[in-house]
UniProtKB/TrEMBL annotation:
Family per similarity comment: Belongs to the GMC oxidoreductase family.
SUPFAM superfamilies in the cross-refs: FAD-linked reductases, C-terminal domain, FAD/NAD(P)-binding domain
Protein name: GMC family oxidoreductase
UniProt keyword annotation of Zinc present: no
Flavoprotein keyword on record: yes
Length: 599
């Protein structure tokens, strides 16, 4: 029998970037918030002397325990999905701070094109640019509306950067200057400039200088040690929830954080949530936490799974396209090129997670797609993240996989190779989605989430195009051997690619095609807000964190409005069902009138 606790105003499921933002903003306004995190607590003091590549980068010390909870995977619906036994393609974090602890710090704003991708694509290229099997849709918000929230997140995180000549417009400069450039980055920028491109320093959550954010939290200057991705920062120099929003939330005195609390159900009466049920992983006890407002702030997969498991929202049906929960799962592709230099050596050992130079000339709709069989693109970058010895072994194609020649080539090219990579945008497809697995269960006896995903024709064409462009830059950089990245026949759950999973609880302005409005409030359970990259209607050509942060700040504003409005659906620039019906009626009347004129 679960023990029922005293009711609170707001409960969050997970304590990472999004929960930290929600708790900090609500706590400042006197709202009592309880954050439930299934992992353990941790802060900068826990990351001292963590430069252990084997323990953290290869054995995933900071990641979700796949032996207790995982997901199943298949490429196609006719296949049987099988459980993932060890993380490979992506790495969900666990513990306070979530994936925001072990991220690299590359912090971007999605483009105006991203947020209105369906309408802008249709207008410029026609409705048949992509086939009907692609479930492309607008996000229900414009860049102009979201821009202030982007800057709010950048101020909180102290992002270091410089103006992107091909990027979205900015009302304010970055809070801190860009990171130090290096000979490797300078070489890339010179080559890109020679080709008529527009290089710039990558926006970074590894700070170029010590910074105090508007909430009074101190973030230290990066030491360029090269241990960012998959590691916590022992210097407190990487913008994470643990050094920014979570301390701010705790400082308000209105935020209570409970660790080892695994939420297994959102309790609801069919119209509104009444709270959550969770298991204490240390004692095994079950608790019910009643709440006026439930905020899902977990990872993409868990947000989707918990809604499906709890019966909130209509599950997506790939056969007829109805339903929204689980719809539009997207990932990313990784085109690029590697260059091998016969005589020159490079210092690739030092670096930082977001130390890099980029070009945006091939991102979004920054180039003409009229004669191309795909839309969108991706940011193209060369990064100096710190090449660690176990996981890095670049050798030219044709090198044997073992033996004396393999060893000789490995030693020769370890510091004589450079790579340019692109993050190719992922467009939603009717067959790429998430649902509950009918066979496999977790440690609590609940169904695992099932991931149905494979690369599309859009992915393949975009991958080839961007890899060719990366090879052109690498050739201009003077590499003796240039090898383009190749794409496998099917997506595989290994090896690691990115932790940039999106979709499943997508946003929009139509309750029939989206799960949440542009405050990330569920249409049909108005006291439930689902915050994170699960709201992305597709995946852009950037890392998602900056856009996740912006949406979280907007969601916090929406929750406060919801309270002030006495529990009514937050309208803002949203369209109610009645308004949508009236607009459809008016449009039909207009079309009939035009038809009569033509007749």
């Amino acid at each position: 029998m679960a023990q029922e606790l005293d009711k609170v105003e707001v409960v969050t499921v997970g304590v990472g970037w999004t929960a930290g933002i929600i708790a900090a903003e609500l706590g400042k306004e006197g709202v009592k918030v309880v954050g439930l995190e299934r992992g353990e607590n941790r802060d900068t003091s826990d990351f001292q002397m963590v430069h252990d590549e084997y323990r953290y980068a290869l054995r995933y010390e900071l990641m979700q325990d796949a032996s207790r909870e995982t997901l199943t995977f298949r490429n196609h619906r006719e296949e049987r999905a099988l459980p993932i036994r060890q993380w490979g393609s992506f790495l969900p974090g666990e513990g306070v701070g979530g994936a925001g602890v072990h991220w690299n710090g590359q912090t971007w704003r999605f483009l105006p094109y991203d947020l209105q991708i369906k309408s802008m694509t249709d207008q410029k290229y026609g409705r048949d640019k992509l086939g009907n099997e692609y479930t492309l849709q607008d996000w229900g918000i414009t860049y102009e509306e979201l821009e202030p929230y982007f800057y709010q997140f950048e101020q909180t995180a102290g992002i270091s950067g410089e103006e992107n000549p091909m990027g979205p417009p900015r009302s304010n400069p970055y809070p801190t200057p860009p990171m130090k450039s290096t000979p490797i980055l300078d070489r890339f920028k010179e080559a890109a400039g020679n080709l008529g491109l527009h290089p710039f320093m990558m926006p970074s959550g590894n700070l170029s200088e010590s910074y105090e954010n508007p909430d009074g939290q101190r973030i230290n200057a990066c030491q360029y040690c090269g241990f960012c991705e998959r590691f916590g920062c022992e210097y407190g120099a990487k913008s994470t929830p643990n050094v920014t929003v979570i301390p701010t939330a705790l400082d308000t005195g209105n935020f209570e954080m409970r660790t080892d609390a695994d939420v297994v159900e959102i309790i609801h009466d069919g119209e509104k949530a009444t709270g959550v049920r969770y298991v204490d992983l240390k004692s095994g006890e079950e608790f019910i936490q009643p709440a006026d407002i439930v905020v899902m702030t977990s990872y993409v997969m868990n947000n989707t799974r918990l809604l499906l498991q709890s019966g909130l929202g209509k599950p997506y049906n790939p056969d007829n396209g109805t339903g929204v929960i689980g719809k539009n799962y997207c990932y990313q592709i990784l085109p690029g090129a590697t260059g091998y230099f016969e005589e020159e050596k490079f210092n690739t050992f030092m670096g930082a997670g977001a130390l890099g130079a980029s070009v945006d000339d091939y991102n979004g709709d920054n180039f003409d797609h009229s004669d191309l069989g795909f839309i969108h693109g991706g940011v193209m970058s060369i990064t100096q993240t710190g090449r660690r010895p176990i996981a890095n072994n670049p050798v030219p194609k044709g090198t044997p996989g073992w033996g004396a020649d393999f060893k000789a080539q490995s030693l020769r090219y370890f510091n004589r190779s450079l790579s340019i990579g692109a993050q190719g945008a992922s467009m939603p497809h009717k067959n790429n989605y998430m649902d509950l697995d009918p066979t496999y269960k977790d440690a609590h006896g609940n169904p695992l989430l099932r991931l149905n995903y494979d690369f599309t024709e859009q992915d393949r064409k975009l991958h080839e195009y961007l890899s060719d462009r990366a090879a052109e830059i690498m050739e201009e950089m003077g590499a003796d051997i240039v090898e383009r990245a190749t794409m496998p026949d099917h997506y595989d759950i290994v090896p690691y690619q990115t932790t940039h999973n999106t979709g499943g609880v997508i946003m929009g302005d139509d309750p029939e095609t989206s799960a949440v409005n542009n405050y990330l409030q569920m249409w049909d359970h108005e006291n439930v807000f689902v915050v994170g990259a699960s709201a992305f209607a597709h995946n852009g050509g950037y890392n998602p964190t900056g856009t996740v942060g912006a949406l979280a700040y907007r969601a916090a504003e929406g929750i406060l409005q919801y309270r002030e409005n006495g529990g009514q659906l937050v309208q803002g620039n949203q369209k109610s069902k009645s308004k949508l019906a009236q607009e459809a009626k008016d449009q039909k009347a207009k079309e009939e009138k035009n038809d009569r004129k033509l007749a």
